[in-house]
Specification:
- This protein is mainly β.
- It has 2 domains: 4-43 and 316-322, no CATH class; 44-315, 6 Propeller (Neuraminidase), CATH 2.120.10.
- It is built from 1 helix and 28 strands.
- It has one helix at residues 4-8; strands at 13-15, 27-30, 35-49, 61-65, 68-72, 83-86, 91-94, 105-109, 112-116, 119-120, 123-124, 128-131, 136-138, 150-154, 157-161, 175-178, 183-186, 197-201, 204-208, 220-223, 228-231, 242-245, 250-253, 264-267, 272-275, 287-290, 294-298, 309-322.
- The strands form 7 sheets. The protein has a 6-stranded mixed beta sheet with strand order 1-2-3-28-27-26, with no helix packed on it.
- A hairpin with a 4-residue loop joins strand 24 (264-267) and strand 25.
- The two termini are 21 Å apart.
Length: 325
Protein backbone atom coordinates (compact mmCIF):
# COMPACT_ATOMS: atom_id res chain seq x y z
CA UNK A 1 0.00 0.00 0.00
CA UNK A 2 1.32 3.45 -0.92
CA UNK A 3 2.20 5.59 2.10
CA UNK A 4 1.72 9.33 2.59
CA UNK A 5 5.51 9.77 2.57
CA UNK A 6 5.73 8.07 -0.83
CA UNK A 7 3.02 10.37 -2.21
CA UNK A 8 4.22 13.66 -0.69
CA UNK A 9 7.92 12.93 -0.17
CA UNK A 10 7.66 13.73 3.55
CA UNK A 11 6.23 12.01 6.57
CA UNK A 12 3.35 13.38 8.67
CA UNK A 13 5.00 15.52 11.37
CA UNK A 14 3.99 15.51 15.00
CA UNK A 15 3.93 19.08 16.34
CA UNK A 16 2.68 20.75 19.51
CA UNK A 17 1.24 23.74 17.62
CA UNK A 18 0.04 24.35 14.06
CA UNK A 19 2.74 25.54 11.59
CA UNK A 20 2.76 29.32 11.04
CA UNK A 21 3.47 29.01 7.30
CA UNK A 22 2.19 25.65 6.08
CA UNK A 23 2.47 24.52 2.47
CA UNK A 24 -0.52 23.61 0.30
CA UNK A 25 -1.39 19.96 0.96
CA UNK A 26 0.74 19.72 4.10
CA UNK A 27 -0.63 17.39 6.81
CA UNK A 28 0.47 17.25 10.45
CA UNK A 29 -0.60 15.81 13.79
CA UNK A 30 -1.16 18.38 16.54
CA UNK A 31 -0.22 16.56 19.76
CA UNK A 32 -1.65 19.32 21.98
CA UNK A 33 -5.16 19.04 20.55
CA UNK A 34 -4.86 15.40 19.49
CA UNK A 35 -6.03 16.16 15.97
CA UNK A 36 -4.81 15.45 12.46
CA UNK A 37 -4.79 18.64 10.38
CA UNK A 38 -4.08 19.77 6.84
CA UNK A 39 -3.65 22.99 4.86
CA UNK A 40 -6.11 22.78 1.96
CA UNK A 41 -8.49 24.75 -0.21
CA UNK A 42 -11.88 24.92 1.50
CA UNK A 43 -15.20 26.58 0.78
CA UNK A 44 -15.64 29.76 2.83
CA UNK A 45 -18.54 31.27 0.87
CA UNK A 46 -18.88 34.44 2.92
CA UNK A 47 -18.78 38.23 2.62
CA UNK A 48 -16.50 40.45 4.71
CA UNK A 49 -15.95 44.19 4.93
CA UNK A 50 -13.40 45.84 2.64
CA UNK A 51 -12.15 49.42 2.52
CA UNK A 52 -14.75 52.11 1.85
CA UNK A 53 -14.84 54.11 -1.37
CA UNK A 54 -13.56 57.67 -1.02
CA UNK A 55 -16.83 58.95 -2.48
CA UNK A 56 -20.16 57.35 -1.52
CA UNK A 57 -22.23 56.90 -4.69
CA UNK A 58 -24.54 54.64 -6.67
CA UNK A 59 -25.05 53.86 -10.37
CA UNK A 60 -21.24 53.56 -10.60
CA UNK A 61 -19.46 50.85 -12.57
CA UNK A 62 -16.55 48.56 -11.85
CA UNK A 63 -14.09 46.07 -13.33
CA UNK A 64 -10.95 44.15 -12.46
CA UNK A 65 -10.23 41.74 -9.63
CA UNK A 66 -10.81 41.74 -5.88
CA UNK A 67 -7.27 42.98 -5.23
CA UNK A 68 -6.95 45.25 -8.29
CA UNK A 69 -10.33 46.82 -9.04
CA UNK A 70 -11.62 50.08 -10.48
CA UNK A 71 -14.80 52.01 -9.68
CA UNK A 72 -15.81 54.95 -11.85
CA UNK A 73 -18.58 57.43 -12.49
CA UNK A 74 -21.87 57.19 -10.67
CA UNK A 75 -24.34 59.53 -9.04
CA UNK A 76 -25.01 61.24 -5.71
CA UNK A 77 -26.98 64.44 -6.24
CA UNK A 78 -25.43 64.78 -9.70
CA UNK A 79 -23.47 62.69 -12.18
CA UNK A 80 -19.82 62.09 -11.27
CA UNK A 81 -16.49 61.79 -13.11
CA UNK A 82 -14.68 60.22 -10.12
CA UNK A 83 -12.40 57.22 -10.66
CA UNK A 84 -11.00 55.17 -7.77
CA UNK A 85 -8.61 52.19 -7.69
CA UNK A 86 -8.70 49.37 -5.12
CA UNK A 87 -5.63 47.41 -4.00
CA UNK A 88 -7.41 44.82 -1.90
CA UNK A 89 -7.38 47.05 1.17
CA UNK A 90 -8.18 50.66 0.28
CA UNK A 91 -9.30 52.93 -2.55
CA UNK A 92 -7.20 55.74 -4.06
CA UNK A 93 -8.27 58.50 -6.42
CA UNK A 94 -7.17 58.32 -10.06
CA UNK A 95 -7.83 60.23 -13.30
CA UNK A 96 -11.39 61.44 -13.87
CA UNK A 97 -13.64 60.40 -16.73
CA UNK A 98 -13.67 62.96 -19.60
CA UNK A 99 -17.34 63.62 -18.81
CA UNK A 100 -19.60 62.67 -15.92
CA UNK A 101 -21.33 59.34 -16.47
CA UNK A 102 -23.41 56.67 -14.69
CA UNK A 103 -24.94 53.26 -15.55
CA UNK A 104 -22.36 52.37 -18.21
CA UNK A 105 -21.18 48.95 -19.34
CA UNK A 106 -17.81 48.08 -17.80
CA UNK A 107 -15.21 45.54 -18.93
CA UNK A 108 -11.52 44.82 -18.54
CA UNK A 109 -8.92 45.18 -15.82
CA UNK A 110 -7.81 47.95 -13.47
CA UNK A 111 -5.14 49.09 -15.95
CA UNK A 112 -7.14 48.51 -19.15
CA UNK A 113 -10.79 49.36 -18.53
CA UNK A 114 -13.65 50.03 -20.93
CA UNK A 115 -16.68 52.21 -20.17
CA UNK A 116 -19.51 52.18 -22.74
CA UNK A 117 -22.88 53.87 -23.04
CA UNK A 118 -24.73 54.94 -19.91
CA UNK A 119 -26.13 58.28 -18.83
CA UNK A 120 -24.13 61.43 -19.48
CA UNK A 121 -24.78 65.15 -18.96
CA UNK A 122 -27.11 65.18 -21.98
CA UNK A 123 -28.98 62.00 -21.07
CA UNK A 124 -28.47 58.54 -22.56
CA UNK A 125 -25.21 58.23 -24.46
CA UNK A 126 -23.38 55.88 -26.84
CA UNK A 127 -19.86 57.10 -26.06
CA UNK A 128 -17.03 54.80 -24.94
CA UNK A 129 -13.98 55.61 -22.84
CA UNK A 130 -10.77 53.63 -22.29
CA UNK A 131 -8.63 53.74 -19.14
CA UNK A 132 -4.89 52.91 -19.14
CA UNK A 133 -4.35 52.81 -15.41
CA UNK A 134 -4.10 56.56 -14.92
CA UNK A 135 -6.07 58.43 -17.61
CA UNK A 136 -9.19 58.05 -19.75
CA UNK A 137 -9.35 58.58 -23.53
CA UNK A 138 -12.26 58.37 -25.97
CA UNK A 139 -13.03 55.04 -27.66
CA UNK A 140 -15.45 54.06 -30.41
CA UNK A 141 -19.13 54.96 -30.15
CA UNK A 142 -21.79 52.27 -29.74
CA UNK A 143 -24.39 51.80 -32.47
CA UNK A 144 -27.30 51.93 -30.01
CA UNK A 145 -27.68 54.68 -27.42
CA UNK A 146 -28.72 53.24 -24.07
CA UNK A 147 -28.09 53.28 -20.34
CA UNK A 148 -27.97 50.58 -17.61
CA UNK A 149 -25.95 48.28 -19.89
CA UNK A 150 -24.22 45.10 -18.77
CA UNK A 151 -20.64 44.45 -19.85
CA UNK A 152 -18.37 41.43 -20.28
CA UNK A 153 -14.87 40.77 -21.57
CA UNK A 154 -11.79 42.96 -21.78
CA UNK A 155 -11.02 46.42 -23.13
CA UNK A 156 -10.14 45.18 -26.62
CA UNK A 157 -12.72 42.38 -26.82
CA UNK A 158 -15.91 43.34 -24.98
CA UNK A 159 -19.67 42.92 -25.07
CA UNK A 160 -22.36 45.52 -24.33
CA UNK A 161 -25.56 43.71 -23.32
CA UNK A 162 -29.15 44.95 -23.12
CA UNK A 163 -29.90 48.28 -21.45
CA UNK A 164 -32.45 51.06 -21.31
CA UNK A 165 -33.00 52.87 -24.63
CA UNK A 166 -34.70 56.19 -25.11
CA UNK A 167 -38.04 54.74 -26.24
CA UNK A 168 -40.68 52.43 -24.72
CA UNK A 169 -40.66 49.77 -23.38
CA UNK A 170 -37.28 51.01 -22.07
CA UNK A 171 -35.72 47.55 -22.16
CA UNK A 172 -33.37 46.54 -24.97
CA UNK A 173 -32.28 43.15 -26.31
CA UNK A 174 -29.41 44.71 -28.31
CA UNK A 175 -25.94 43.16 -28.03
CA UNK A 176 -22.80 44.80 -29.40
CA UNK A 177 -19.24 43.55 -29.72
CA UNK A 178 -16.15 45.79 -29.35
CA UNK A 179 -12.74 45.08 -30.91
CA UNK A 180 -10.84 47.90 -29.26
CA UNK A 181 -11.72 50.36 -32.02
CA UNK A 182 -15.34 49.98 -33.09
CA UNK A 183 -18.63 48.38 -32.07
CA UNK A 184 -20.53 45.81 -34.16
CA UNK A 185 -24.17 44.85 -33.61
CA UNK A 186 -24.51 41.08 -33.12
CA UNK A 187 -27.41 38.72 -32.30
CA UNK A 188 -29.92 39.98 -29.75
CA UNK A 189 -30.76 38.67 -26.32
CA UNK A 190 -33.86 36.46 -26.20
CA UNK A 191 -35.28 38.57 -23.36
CA UNK A 192 -35.02 42.36 -23.64
CA UNK A 193 -33.91 43.78 -20.30
CA UNK A 194 -31.98 46.47 -18.50
CA UNK A 195 -29.62 46.51 -15.48
CA UNK A 196 -28.64 42.85 -15.73
CA UNK A 197 -25.76 41.04 -14.13
CA UNK A 198 -22.98 39.99 -16.48
CA UNK A 199 -19.96 37.68 -16.44
CA UNK A 200 -17.48 36.07 -18.78
CA UNK A 201 -15.64 37.05 -21.94
CA UNK A 202 -16.60 38.24 -25.40
CA UNK A 203 -16.99 34.72 -26.80
CA UNK A 204 -18.40 33.03 -23.68
CA UNK A 205 -20.60 35.32 -21.59
CA UNK A 206 -23.54 35.11 -19.22
CA UNK A 207 -26.39 37.60 -18.66
CA UNK A 208 -28.77 37.19 -15.72
CA UNK A 209 -31.59 39.02 -14.00
CA UNK A 210 -32.63 42.57 -14.87
CA UNK A 211 -35.76 44.58 -15.56
CA UNK A 212 -37.93 43.64 -18.54
CA UNK A 213 -39.97 46.84 -18.02
CA UNK A 214 -42.35 46.10 -16.53
CA UNK A 215 -41.27 43.41 -14.11
CA UNK A 216 -38.00 42.02 -12.83
CA UNK A 217 -36.69 38.76 -14.27
CA UNK A 218 -34.64 35.77 -13.16
CA UNK A 219 -33.90 34.78 -16.78
CA UNK A 220 -30.34 33.70 -17.54
CA UNK A 221 -28.81 33.52 -21.01
CA UNK A 222 -25.53 32.07 -22.23
CA UNK A 223 -23.55 33.56 -25.15
CA UNK A 224 -21.30 31.37 -27.33
CA UNK A 225 -19.78 34.13 -29.43
CA UNK A 226 -22.60 34.00 -31.98
CA UNK A 227 -25.97 33.71 -30.25
CA UNK A 228 -27.74 33.69 -26.90
CA UNK A 229 -29.34 30.57 -25.40
CA UNK A 230 -31.80 30.63 -22.51
CA UNK A 231 -30.58 28.48 -19.61
CA UNK A 232 -31.65 27.88 -16.00
CA UNK A 233 -32.97 31.01 -14.27
CA UNK A 234 -31.75 32.62 -11.06
CA UNK A 235 -33.54 31.53 -7.90
CA UNK A 236 -34.35 35.17 -7.09
CA UNK A 237 -35.61 37.54 -9.80
CA UNK A 238 -33.95 40.93 -9.38
CA UNK A 239 -32.69 44.09 -11.01
CA UNK A 240 -29.52 46.22 -10.68
CA UNK A 241 -27.46 43.30 -9.34
CA UNK A 242 -23.74 42.55 -9.41
CA UNK A 243 -22.03 39.88 -11.45
CA UNK A 244 -18.57 38.28 -11.42
CA UNK A 245 -16.75 35.27 -12.80
CA UNK A 246 -17.02 33.26 -16.00
CA UNK A 247 -19.67 31.64 -18.15
CA UNK A 248 -19.29 28.36 -16.25
CA UNK A 249 -18.45 29.71 -12.78
CA UNK A 250 -20.34 32.93 -12.08
CA UNK A 251 -21.56 34.82 -9.03
CA UNK A 252 -24.77 36.89 -8.80
CA UNK A 253 -25.25 39.15 -5.79
CA UNK A 254 -27.23 42.08 -4.46
CA UNK A 255 -29.80 44.05 -6.44
CA UNK A 256 -33.45 44.76 -5.75
CA UNK A 257 -36.45 42.45 -5.83
CA UNK A 258 -37.76 44.96 -4.40
CA UNK A 259 -36.73 45.66 -1.64
CA UNK A 260 -32.94 45.74 -1.85
CA UNK A 261 -31.31 42.37 -1.33
CA UNK A 262 -27.87 40.99 -0.56
CA UNK A 263 -28.78 37.52 -1.85
CA UNK A 264 -25.88 35.60 -3.37
CA UNK A 265 -26.08 32.80 -5.93
CA UNK A 266 -23.41 30.61 -7.53
CA UNK A 267 -23.58 29.33 -11.13
CA UNK A 268 -21.85 26.07 -12.10
CA UNK A 269 -22.49 26.20 -15.84
CA UNK A 270 -25.85 24.47 -15.50
CA UNK A 271 -27.78 25.87 -12.53
CA UNK A 272 -27.79 28.50 -9.80
CA UNK A 273 -27.41 27.64 -6.11
CA UNK A 274 -28.51 30.11 -3.43
CA UNK A 275 -25.88 30.68 -0.74
CA UNK A 276 -27.07 31.28 2.83
CA UNK A 277 -24.51 34.08 3.31
CA UNK A 278 -25.84 37.34 1.87
CA UNK A 279 -24.05 40.66 1.56
CA UNK A 280 -23.97 42.50 4.88
CA UNK A 281 -25.43 45.60 3.23
CA UNK A 282 -28.35 44.95 0.86
CA UNK A 283 -27.94 47.29 -2.11
CA UNK A 284 -28.61 47.97 -5.77
CA UNK A 285 -26.80 49.81 -8.59
CA UNK A 286 -23.28 49.14 -7.29
CA UNK A 287 -19.90 48.32 -8.86
CA UNK A 288 -18.92 44.66 -9.10
CA UNK A 289 -15.68 42.92 -10.02
CA UNK A 290 -13.73 39.70 -9.58
CA UNK A 291 -14.39 35.98 -9.84
CA UNK A 292 -16.72 33.41 -8.34
CA UNK A 293 -14.19 32.71 -5.59
CA UNK A 294 -12.99 36.30 -5.00
CA UNK A 295 -15.54 39.00 -5.85
CA UNK A 296 -16.03 42.64 -4.89
CA UNK A 297 -19.15 44.78 -4.44
CA UNK A 298 -18.67 48.52 -3.89
CA UNK A 299 -20.91 51.52 -3.36
CA UNK A 300 -24.54 51.41 -4.45
CA UNK A 301 -27.89 52.50 -3.11
CA UNK A 302 -29.25 51.39 0.26
CA UNK A 303 -31.50 54.13 1.66
CA UNK A 304 -29.08 56.54 0.02
CA UNK A 305 -25.61 56.42 -1.49
CA UNK A 306 -23.13 54.18 0.32
CA UNK A 307 -19.33 53.91 0.24
CA UNK A 308 -19.33 50.39 1.72
CA UNK A 309 -17.22 47.74 0.00
CA UNK A 310 -17.63 44.01 0.57
CA UNK A 311 -15.32 41.15 -0.40
CA UNK A 312 -16.59 37.67 -1.24
CA UNK A 313 -14.39 34.69 -0.48
CA UNK A 314 -15.63 31.53 -2.12
CA UNK A 315 -12.68 29.20 -1.71
CA UNK A 316 -9.49 29.84 0.23
CA UNK A 317 -6.55 28.04 1.81
CA UNK A 318 -7.36 27.05 5.38
CA UNK A 319 -6.10 24.83 8.15
CA UNK A 320 -8.72 22.10 8.50
CA UNK A 321 -9.09 19.27 10.99
CA UNK A 322 -9.16 15.92 9.20
CA UNK A 323 -11.81 13.47 10.34
CA UNK A 324 -12.92 10.08 9.10
CA UNK A 325 -16.14 11.69 7.78
Amino acid sequence: MTTFKEIRGTAIQVVSSDPSNPEIGQIWYNSSSGTLKGYVFANVNAWSAGGNLGTARYRLNGAGTQTAAIGFGGYTTSLLTNTELYNGTSWTTSGNLPAAKADAAAAGTQTATLSAGGTGPGGRTNTSEEFNGSTWTSGGSMNTTRTQISGAGIQTAALGIGGNPASPPFASNATESYNGTSWTSVNNLNTARTATGGAGIQTAALAFGGDTSPGFTAATESWNGTSWTSVTSLNTARNALGGAGTQTAALAFGGTTPPNTGATELWNGTSWTSNPNSMSTARRFFASAGTQTAALGSGGYTTGATAATEEWTGQALQTKTITVS
